[in-house]
Amino acid sequence: MDDILQVKNVTKYYNSGSVATKALNSISFSVRKGEFIAVMGASGSGKSTLLNIIAAIDKVSAGEIYLDGISLTEQKESSLSVVRRDKLGVVFQEYNLLDTLTVGENITLPLNLKHIGAAETQKQLKRVADALGIHDQLDKFPRDLSGGQRQRAACARAIITCPALVLADEPTGALDSKNAKLLMNCFEQMNQKLGSTILMVTHDPVIGSYADRILFLKDGNIWNELDRGGRERQELYRDILSVMAALGGDLGVH
Question: pLDDT tens digits, residue range 9-57?
């Protein structure tokens, strides 16, 4: 299976006056095409820094990152903006939908920015709406939807361009448990029906148990890793709790 993402010996320092803080310490891992990866760790473990670097929002201090064969560390900003547009889909904790556009218009916005024709745009909209079960919401406005429905619309927008990688930053953080479960079912559909490759940051062991593989960060290092194998979600969930207990620190679990 091809590697969509390769992270090689990535280190990130942040300078505050004369003090340098190491947020990531020579991290290496890869993500295969079609994989669903969760990144977990206590607050300050480096998971948000890692996501921002992969999203080409922040730059590495050392090391290399390859996304779909393209080096993110060697690109100029003008080239990075094209990579972000064409290769990445991002789902944030906040939905970031435009209130003045319908749900359908929000979802197809990335295609409009790429000047994709109307017929192809509608074809792609139907594809993601069918897969995620949101056809009846396309003509509504974001204000008319529940939080979970808005987040599913945000997922559809993230995948409508068929990006190489979907990044999700605490996607269930603003949702109650019922809507969080519905959203994770949506992520499963994205991964299994549409073949989306997903890298998700979460603090929640229930949410992490939906992934194929979980990377645990501690002090900027990959401290542990769990692979689903043939396990059911409940069994993986228990294993995640065991690793988190050994990991220590405040993982923000409520």
Answer: 999 998 877 788 889 999 999 999 999 999 999 888 889 899 999 998 8
Q: Which of 82, 73, 35 is nearest to 211 (CA)?
A: 35
Centre a 10 Å sphere on the Cβ of residue 141 and count the other Cβ atoms it contains.
Answer: 16
- pTM to 2 decimals? 0.90
The alpha-carbon radius of gyration of the chain (Å, integer) is 18
- Residue 100 CA to residue 178 CA, distance in Å, equals 28
| CA separation for the pair 47, 199 (Å, rounded) | 11
